[in-house]
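Worked problem 6 (solution included).
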Amino acid sequence: MPAGLSLSTTTGAITGTPTTVKAQATYTVTATNVTGSGTFGIVITVNPTAPIITYTSPDVYVVNTAITALNPNNTGGAATS
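Solution. The predicted structure is:
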């Protein structure tokens, strides 16, 4: 189970807050009673947080005048491109 998630052995509920990125994986859940058991493979993937970018705005420029770099502010997950 991905870090931060847990499976209730009483109800079968998966709860929590995932804390790390985890590639797709299949976790097998088995329930049993006096007449036998049943299983299910649940596929879970934990993706990174999406970037949330902003720029100062509005920006006004003058023709033929170089601008200072306008860099984004990212308050979300890391941007890779």
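Discussion: The mean pLDDT is 95.
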